[in-house]
Amino acid sequence: MGVSQIPQPDTILKKIGIVAALPDEAGCLVSEKITPFEPIQIQDNIYLCLSGMGYNNALKASAELLRINVDALISWGVAGAVNESLHSGDILIAEQILAADGQFQCSPEWHERLLIALSSASTAVFNSKLYSDDRICASISDKQKLFAKTKADAVDMESAAIAGLAEKMNIDFVAIRAVADEAVTSLPKAVTKHTDEFGQPRLMQFLLSCLFNPGQILSLLILARAYKKALANLKGIANDLKKQEFHYNTPA
């Protein structure tokens, strides 16, 4: 008589929620158009929510992901370097999120697994500290001041909101960002003053800004090239990360 097999319970995999501020950032993970604040499932156990830029938008998107009972949150997208040693396209895996009202630690084991997994990536990957502010850090002098004050490597506008909610709800959190503008690059006013929360130009104001201040056109071209490189490198790591469920459900 054969030995009876004792059925093993299925492994319950945890669900991951990803917040991306801009459609281009979300587009590195999924091809279809996404409605803001409506989470979509991009594969088993992984959900994505488009937020728009800024603290409040990121907080709202994170809350929508928590409504579908995700177990962990990821801040995903681009960032602006304030550390002059970083270059456009560099991938940052944050160990800490700094903000005006405090700081947040990213989940240590998950953070370490991501660093190890991406160590063989074709682009440079760095362990980093991110500063998160609801205001755009646009000028070279502002970036220099922020670096001198905080020793952060880069700045974004959403990670503090996502990290703060994750801490409040006692769930895991990491931030994965690619450097767009470098520390020695200023953001032109056409971008900082005349684009909406999803990074789209308010066309008439944008064109008028360029017309009356044509000196910023070169800066726009430099920024566009840097942004394109950041997105390409994010997309370059996205498929492998998705296949491995962002190394979150990896057995210990």
Topology diagram in text:
Blueprint: E1 16-20, H1 23-26, E2 40-43, E3 46-50, H2 55-67, E4 72-81, E5 91-99, E6 102-105, H3 108-117, E7 125-132, H4 140-150, E8 154-156, H5 159-168, E9 172-179, H6 189-193, H7 203-212, H8 216-243
Parallel strand pairs: 1-3, 1-4, 4-9, 5-7, 7-8
Antiparallel strand pairs: 2-3, 4-8, 5-6, 5-9
Helix pairs in contact: 2-5
Task: List SSEs in N-to-C order.
Answer: EHEEHEEEHEHEHEHHH
Largest sheet: 5 strands, mixed, barrel
Q: Estimate what percentage of residues fall within beta strands.
A: 15-25%
Number of domains: 1
Question: Could you describe the 3D structure shown?
Answer:
With 252 residues, this protein is of the alpha/beta class. It has a single domain, classed as 3-Layer(aba) Sandwich (Rossmann fold), CATH 3.40.50.1580. Helix content is 36%, strand content 22%. Helix 2 crosses helix 5.
Compose a concise summary of this entry.
With 252 residues, the protein is of the alpha/beta class.
What are the key terms here?
alpha/beta, Rossmann fold, 36% helix, 252 residues, 5-stranded mixed β-barrel
